[in-house]
Write a structure and sequence with these properties.
By secondary structure, the protein is of the alpha/beta class. It has a single domain, classed as Luciferase-like domain (TIM Barrel, Alpha-Beta Barrel), CATH 3.20.20.30. The chain has eleven helices and nine strands. Strands 1-2-3-4-5-6-7-9 form an eight-stranded parallel β-barrel, surrounded by nine helices. Helix 8 packs across helix 9 (269-275) and helix 10 (283-290) packs across helix 11. The longest helix is centred in the C-terminal third of the chain and has 20 residues, at 239-258. InterPro entries: Bact_Lucif_Oxidored (IPR050766), Luciferase-like_dom (IPR011251), Luciferase-like_sf (IPR036661). This is LLM class flavin-dependent oxidoreductase. One of its GO terms (cellular component) is cytosol.
């Protein structure tokens, strides 16, 4: 990422886990669609969704490519991606078909983020062994790459249709270690880093910076390597206002994650915010904190999100506006007016 005139600008994204309050998932999906519409109008470069087969607090999105096809029809220029699709639970050829259809409908605006997931319940429901998740991710990604390259896949004479566009620089992998980052680089994938590093006491950016460095050191392709940095970013009038909207949700989420060992038990609210690496407060405070973020200087994509906070729709829209009009420009970003290209 750069902040000086004359150097390549970073792309600005937002990520939604498509969660709401209550049980009206139809309204939750409509609200998520309107986030894409608003982000499109504000000049965001990429809108991302996360796949969850098991509902979390306020729902979740089990079928991201169906949703993105709908979002494509409501938007004109914003790129559309998954962060992530749980690849071991997918048939990679069928997934390639869905991706190719959405890419065709959207005019070539698709980004594909994949990962291994973490829920043993999801693996059980799909008849997959969670002990093989890394192996399955590698196997399925190889098939997916072949299919999206328009090559024959699995049997002579079969190719995915519609014929895919060029996905050579549009496949991303979510990783949680330096070896994982090196593996992603070796395969030619772009790198996705999560909003928080679980199982560590040190700040997230201190943990993830060596992963990003390892990725760049291992990169040997002629094209520019790309790093997508997901971060919790919630600007508001001031820090007190921000905490009123996000504090309880973040604290509850940290306590839930402590049950699985991701965080220590009994975290105080402020420590929960630190563990989720939350950038919150006035726009000036958020900008100042992001300027100290250790991975951000290497990022080609800043992917903002509010999860695990579940905001009311108007508050989420207002936060997107502040990110696009005040926070990101202060960091060197400029809003796009044309479709965001894959390699920018």
């Amino acid at each position: 990422m750069t902040t000086t005139t004359g150097t390549p600008r970073f792309r600005l994204g937002f990520l939604t886990h498509v969660q709401g309050r209550g049980t009206d998932l139809a309204q939750t999906y409509r609200n998520a669609t309107e986030l894409f519409v608003a982000a499109d109008e504000l000049g965001f470069d990429v809108g991302w969704v996360a796949q969850h087969h098991v509902p979390g607090s306020g729902g979740g999105l089990s079928s991201p490519w169906t949703f993105l096809a709908h979002a494509a029809a409501r938007t004109t220029r914003i790129r559309l991606g998954t962060a992530i699709t749980v690849l071991p639970l997918e048939d990679p050829v069928r997934l390639a078909e869905d991706i190719a259809v959405v890419d065709t409908l959207s005019g070539g605006r698709v980004e594909v983020g994949v990962g291994s997931g973490y829920s043993e319940l999801e693996y059980a429901a799909f008849g997959r062994d969670p002990a093989r998740k890394r192996e399955l991710t590698t196997e399925h990604l190889s098939v997916l790459r072949t299919a999206l390259a328009g090559e024959e896949v699995r049997t002579p004479g079969f190719r995915v249709q519609p014929a895919p566009g060029d996905f050579s620089d549009r496949i991303w992998q979510g990783v949680f270690s330096a070896p994982g980052a090196q593996h992603a680089a070796a395969g030619g994938s772009n790198l996705l880093l999560n909003r928080a590093a679980y199982g560590f006491d040190a700040p997230t950016d201190e943990i993830q910076r060596p992963w990003a460095d390892a990725y760049l050191d291992a990169w040997d392709r002629p094209r520019r390597p790309r790093i997508g940095l997901s971060r919790f970013v919630f600007p508001a009038k001031d820090r007190r206002t921000a905490l009123r909207h996000i504090g309880d949700d973040v604290h509850r989420a940290a306590l839930r994650m402590a049950e699985s060992g991701a965080f220590p038990k009994g975290l105080a609210p402020e420590e929960a915010l630190r563990r989720f690496h939350c950038f919150h407060g006035s726009t000036e405070e958020v900008v100042a904190e992001l300027r100290q973020e250790k991975v951000l200087p290497l990022a080609t994509d800043l992917i903002t999100q509010f999860n695990p906070a579940v905001l009311d729709h108007d508050t989420a829209i207002r936060a997107l506006e502040l990110i696009a009009t005040e926070v990101a420009p202060a960091l060197g970003w400029q809003p796009a007016t044309e479709p965001a290209l894959a390699g920018v």
